[in-house]
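Hi C.,

You asked whether I'd gotten around to modeling the 539-residue construct. I have! Everything is below, sequence then structure, no commentary in between.
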Amino acid sequence: MTEIAPALAPLLVTLPLLGAAIALIAGRHRRTQVVVSVVTLTVVCVIAAILLAVVDGGDQAIAVSVGGWPIPVGIVIYVDRLAALLVMVSSVVLLAVLLFSVGQGAADGDDETPVTIFHPTYLILAAGIFTAFIAGDLFNLYVGFEILLVASYVLITLGGTESRIRTGVVYIVVSLVSSILFLAAIAMIYAALGTVNIVQISERMPELPQETQLVLHLLLLLAFSIKAAVFPLSFWLPDSYPTAPAPVTAVFAGLLTKVGVYAIIRTETEMFLDNDVNTLLLWVAMATMIVGVLGAVAQAELKRILSFTLVSHVGYMIFGLAIATPAAIGATIYYMVHHIVVQTTLFLAVGLVERRAGSTSILKVKGLMKAAPLIAVLYFIPAVNLGGLPPFSGFIGKYAIFDAAAEVGSPLMITLIVAGIVTSLLTLYALMRAWNLAFWREGEDSVETDARIEYLGDAPAAAIQTERRVIPRIMTASTAGMVALTVALTVFAGPLYDVCTRIGAALLEPVTLVQLEEQHQISTGGDEKTTDTGEEVTP
């Protein structure tokens, strides 16, 4: 398996792109498109699992130089434990959401998710996500972001309604600003260091003055924080995600912000270890948690509630990253995996609520506990998980981050722990209030007569009442599968957390160029390597 692993790594990107091309050609053959998309994502998931087993078991990453160019001149695909784990989790989530969208398209006659363009665009989105995760240099990380931008703009405006076009324009403008900042940072880094390879950047960065490092550092953080929806750069997210079709919103919420968080992790642990901005990150993390969850409490529409909780829980990841210990980084990775799965599951469950009740406004929906008990269960389990109730994975991840912060023990860390606990309680309150109103409240109960929640009458953008629609079994089955996966994150928390712990330890020990060349030599199976002068030497 070790011998074939380097040949498998490029397939993580080439297979989705090839599948997108086939799906586009087969635009009039819906079943062909479905089969191609499902098979492609399934194969990518298997490949990612193989690569994770190889790099975790061999304790060495895989580096593949595209086109045979010597490292670091050519494009380098770099698959370590973190990249392999996130590609595997992302492919599972993408597959589940794809099955959900197939059922929705079949039931709605493809009005919400036009099959001709949906499948190719969806696979291109997947290719962009995977490219970002396995990029070995900043420019190809930028390419992954741009692939994401193009595909996500098409997906977020599916259906062509006025609200979707309006929010789509805001989304693309914000994304372009982020991309411009990222590209400017890449140009400045190349001008200062003569390379965009992440390993070489980490080696050469200490040669720069601290002031120069700080400028480059903050510029990258600014670009990535927009994509990750870190406060105060998260203003665009709550208005953009709720207007998209349910499967699009689910995959965006689960994955797109995590690509930004992933880029921040790489930035902080590999390129700028000697340029510490952790205190700034801690304050930003606290603001992101508190402001995001207060926004969720003030909402009366399920998608907007979840969008604000998405922002607040990005704060936990920034918190764990800013602690900057191996245990904290490992806990952050675990929480990141947990949030990808649970947040996606909740948006799928809300998609079922919208079809069954005709709305996602908790002021309008009621009595679903009796009318649709299965949907009630599918919402309740990930909701309490996201709220951090024990023994679920949300509690495990938060406790691990808090424990790592407590080991540091500074007053700011204790303050962040308190803020994290308050955020968790308010998250649980917002989600359980929605449960009480939409599922538990009987038909004769009135929201308007309840003084405790009368403030919700002023909440923005309550969902417009639509006709109730049939729920195909595949939509329920894919959501149930994701709920089962959230439970599995708890049942198998031990092995997963061990992997995340090893990731945390490895990230704080940056790879050198010599090690990268050795990993590349192993990946190609050759006995020769190229020196900086281009001469081939035999070790």
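If it helps when you're writing up: The chain is about 70% helix and 0% strand.

Thanks,
B.
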